[in-house]
Specification:
The protein is α/β, with parallel strands linked by helices. The protein has two domains: 179 residues, NAD(P)-binding Rossmann-like Domain (Rossmann fold); 117 residues, 6-phosphogluconate dehydrogenase C-terminal fold (Orthogonal Bundle), CATH 1.10.3660. It has twelve helices and eight strands. Strands 3-2-1-4-5-6-7-8 form an eight-stranded mixed β-sheet, with helices on both faces.
Length: 307
């Protein structure tokens, strides 16, 4: 595909640009709100399929301009942020592609990247990069948005073959504007990693919730006895069902690969004698500490590199 020069807008800082946000649920509205409340963008235009949501976002100052159509919102943006469900991104992109400025950069907030990224790259070319802030809440929607959602979060920046360097740089700038830390990563590695720390945990959480729901019919005291362990391990099962379905269907091969390994480990734990089980549980606690400590070290290093 012939390169379209990003022109003067690519030389500007984010605070001088118009950011157009498509989808004003938890992530889209929180992103927009952070940019408007901090002045990190010149203007934040917004569009939602739901006129009530759009009006509420404008009234609350989450966006600075409410757009009556997706095409209008597309025509305004120097930065296009697709915060709609992954299943809707291709259709929306094809709808607005003729309205978007040739100088605009395009990012998506989807939690998977390999499959949808290939699709979006074929539509947007070098103007596109994946963008995935590792933050959220179990309850979605505009009513649960808040501008500090992304503080201290890691924001995966996922370039594809042909992504323009200035688009990648702008994505990293956006991550910092949200209060997060950018992590440059390939699509395949991204999907393999999030399958382990986000997508498979959702499936396990859902399975445990379904199990408890069934067992409660046999043992009514189960609900009264439920406490922090059940609440914490099933929290993500309370999230929007469509979001979980998009995660698993869009990253199915990685989730299934890890599910098989998870089942192997579960069988190993259940077949261990008391001494072996105690040892493996100690290993599990140490492994958890290593993962969380490594993240903290990475965040410290990232902040030091940013100055």
């Amino acid at each position: 595909m012939r390169r379209v020069a990003l022109g003067a807008s690519s030389m500007k800082k984010l605070r001088e640009l118009v950011v157009s946000v498509f989808g004003l649920g938890l992530l889209g509205a929180s992103l927009a709100w952070r940019l408007t409340s901090t002045g990190k963008a010149g203007e934040v235009a917004g569009w939602s399929r739901n006129p009530v949501t759009l009006e509420a976002a404008f009234r609350r100052g989450i966006i600075t301009r409410a757009c009556a159509s997706a095409e209008e919102c597309a025509s305004l943006g120097d930065v296009i942020v697709l915060a709609v469900p992954v299943r809707a991104m291709e259709e929306l992109s094809l709808r607005i592609v003729r309205s978007v400025r040739p100088t605009a950069a395009v990012f998506d907030l989807g939690s998977t990247k390999s499959e949808i990224g290939a699709t979006l790259s074929s539509i947007w070319g070098g103007r596109y990069a994946g963008f995935h802030p590792m933050a959220g809440k179990e309850r979605g929607g505009l009513e649960n948005a808040f501008p500090d959602l992304f503080l201290e979060s890691v924001c995966a920046v996922v370039p594809f073959t042909g992504t323009y360097p200035e688009v990648t740089a702008l994505a990293e700038e956006l991550a910092l504007a949200l209060g997060g830390c950018p992590l440059l990563i390939g699509a395949d590695e991204h999907d393999a990693a999030v399958a382990c720390i986000s997508h498979l945990p959702l499936v396990i959480s859902a399975a445990l919730s379904l199990l408890a729901g069934g067992e409660m019919g046999k043992y009514p005291s189960l609900a009264a006895l439920s406490a922090g362990g059940f609440r914490d391990t099933t929290r993500v099962a309370a999230g929007p069902a469509w979001l979980g379905a998009d995660m698993v269907s869009g990253n199915g091969s990685q989730v299934r690969r890890l599910a098989e390994e998870f089942k192997r480990l579960l069988d190993e734990l259940l077949s261990s004698d008391s001494e072996e089980l105690e040892s493996r549980l100690s290993d599990a606690a140490a492994a958890r500490d290593r993962v969380l400590s490594a993240k903290e070290a990475w965040l410290r290093g990232s902040k030091e590199r940013q100055g």
